[in-house]
Design a protein that fits this description.
Helix content: 25-40%
Structural class: alpha/beta
Radius of gyration: 27 Å
Largest sheet: 7 strands, mixed
CATH architecture of the largest domain: 3-Layer(aba) Sandwich
Number of strands: 21
CATH superfamily of the largest domain: Thiamin diphosphate (ThDP)-binding fold, Pyr/PP domains
Number of domains: 4
């Protein structure tokens, strides 16, 4: 099993009754796997991670074993309920699975979730393979129930997406009695109640720290005492691989730390090194214990580690056999939107209007790259609307007719509704473009409240963006098919001139969806004799388009080449047809 599959299996085996999540790499497959394989668990996508955690908290308040799942930046969104959950406690077991992304393979930052565990005063476990990923779900639930606390189970990209053998077992139910019980002194965090809960939280942390000394996944493995390594997660595997004879303290609970165990281990080795990704979290804690230790000066603080990096850190050199330079010039393959992507058509229309675009997290973030080059900001989920509104209202005429926000449909439901309401409330002249491709595309086409289907593909409500915007007070709402680039270009131009906030819904399904497609599935062709070589079609960035240079132009030939369509890639979206000024693009015969 992959680590994500194993966590899903752990939710099943250890009696989780409800799981809630918002998709985000590297955590997405956990809920997908639960939804596909374990009908005993009530599982569903939430609009965002805050809601996912609140739903899981409600389930735990009723005595159920529950799970909330997110990637590391998702915990930022869920931080508000997370911090106070530490005060209220949970009743039933609650495990918060958070998957970090060192190296930022698919994320906008490299934040370290262990800091949230310390900040929120809750335990944090970390597995080093898929078997532990499964088993630690059970351990996290037991700790949660025994100490009345939420528990973080931290994973990372390498654990989430790599595979190892897992021994499975049958399902067992949680020990808590299910039901509704009134206890406002515990669960209503008015200041008077919260003041009483804070000392309980502090004592609980001390109790969990004492438990950490005997936690079975905290292990001392003695070997050569000239080198002692403290590590956790996948980095323990790397360190064991490159220094198998060393002594190890393997930590399965990375907060709170087992102080006595660490001091005992340190006293038995001559040289002590901490091998950990990202922040010097364990290293700094060990230093505060008065113990001399090496760490980040050897491994660095940025990016993920690897066996080779760990070996260089420990020995100063790598034993990996070098095959020398490869004398081959490999072609560059930058990330790109798929052929037929409706976002490309939308950006093409925006580019014609020479606007300044604030965006969000999603496939459309690729619009920042050439040849489109049409995204000027990308901060976090839902931020594009607020940023554009701030630019518009603060810069006045300097931004008039230029400030545009783009946001996807899933991101709109995640965290775009409140900034859209703020825009309607405080005014200005910002134009918002919702790029509605009917799915959560970047993480693998998951459903959301606007698709009409749940995680398990059961029919449900379909949230209506137009009616939402109308209820917010928007008077200017335009819905358009983005493949009609000229029409969209005209609509954008008109809305930029409006003296009030306006909303354009650019709606066409993701090119990879198997149903309800607008695309005609018939490729286009370009008449090379008519093509002027202006590259208007090439500048849309479609992978199906190629430019053929004319090496030896004929007498009188002014163009430097002509465009060509690869029929194996073209899906017939018609964007190139829309932008061509010379009628060179035709439907293929």
């Amino acid at each position: 099993m992959s680590g994500n599959e194993a966590i899903a299996r752990g939710a099943y085996e250890y009696g989780v009754r409800l799981a809630s999540a918002y998709p985000g790499t590297p955590s997405t497959e956990i809920l997908e796997c639960i939804g596909a394989l374990y009908p005993e668990i009530r599982a569903g996508w939430a609009p965002n991670e805050k809601v996912a955690l609140e739903v899981a908290a409600g389930s735990a308040y009723g005595g159920s074993r529950s799970m909330a799942i997110m990637k590391h930046v998702g915990l930022n969104v869920a931080a508000d309920p997370f911090m106070t959950l530490s005060y209220t406690g949970v009743n039933g077991g609650l495990v918060i699975v958070v998957c970090d992304d060192p190296e930022m393979h698919s994320s906008q930052n490299e934040q370290d979730t262990r800091n949230y565990a310390k900040f929120g005063k809750v335990p944090c476990l970390e597995s080093s393979d898929s078997q532990e990923a499964k088993d630690m779900v059970g351990e996290a639930l037991l700790i949660s129930e025994n100490f009345d606390t939420p528990v973080i189970l931290r994973s990372s990209t390498r654990i989430s997406h790599s595979m190892s053998l897992v021994e499975t077992k049958t399902r067992s139910e949680g020990p808590k009695e299910l039901g509704l019980k009134k206890d406002p002194m515990k669960f209503v965090m008015l200041p008077a109640m919260a003041r009483r809960r804070h000392p309980i939280v502090e004592q609980r942390l001390k109790d969990v720290a004492a438990f950490a000394e005997t936690f079975p996944f905290n292990k001392i493995i003695m070997g050569d005492t000239s080198l002692g390594i403290i590590s956790s997660g996948v980095n323990f595997q790397y360190a064991r691989e490159v220094a198998p004879s060393a002594s190890f303290l393997k930590l399965g609970m990375v907060w709170p730390l087992p102080v006595k165990m660490i001091k005992d281990f340190a006293s038995r080795v001559k040289r002590l090194v901490v091998i950990e990704d990202l922040d010097p979290f364990i290293e700094e804690a060990v230093r505060l214990m008065g113990i001399a230790v090496e760490g980040k000066e050897l491994t660095g603080i940025c990016s993920e580690l690897s066996p080779e990096k760990v070996e260089i850190a420990l020995t100063g050199a790598s034993s990996a056999r070098s095959i020398g330079p490869i004398d081959v010039e490999l072609p560059l393959r930058p990330p790109n939107m798929c052929p037929g992507c409706p976002h490309r058509a939308t950006f093409t229309a925006l580019k014609k209007n020479k606007v300044y675009v604030s965006g969000d997290i999603g496939c459309y973030t690729l619009g920042a790259l050439p040849p489109l080059g049409m995204l000027d900001h990308c901060l976090c989920m839902g931020a594009g609307i607020g940023i554009a509104s701030g630019l518009d209202r603060s810069l006045g005429d300097l931004a008039k007719g230029k400030a545009v926000a783009v946001i996807g449909d899933s991101t709109f439901f995640h965290s775009g509704m409140t900034p859209l309401l703020e825009l309607a409330y405080n005014g200005g002249s910002t134009t918002v473009v919702i790029m509605d491709n009917r799915t959560t595309a970047m993480t693998g086409a998951q459903n959301h409240p606007g698709t009409g289907f749940t995680l398990r593909l059961d029919p449900t409500i379909t949230a209506d963006i137009e009616k939402l915007a109308e209820s917010f007070g928007f008077k200017r709402i335009r819905t358009v098919n983005p493949y009609k680039v000229r029409e969209l270009e005209k609509i954008v131009s008109e809305e930029l001139e409006a003296p009030e906030p306006s909303l354009i819904i650019s709606r066409a399904p993701c090119a990879l969806l198997k149903t309800d497609r607008i695309l005609i599935d018939k490729p286009y062709d370009i008449d090379k004799d008519v093509c002027k070589g202006c590259k208007s079609c090439i500048n849309t960035g479609c992978p199906a388009l190629e430019f053929v240079k004319i090496e030896e132009p004929a007498e009188g030939e002014k163009r430097k080449g002509f465009s060509k369509i690869n029929p194996a890639l073209c899906v017939g979206c018609g964007t190139c047809y829309e932008v061509c000024k010379f009628d060179a693009v035709k439907e293929a015969s």
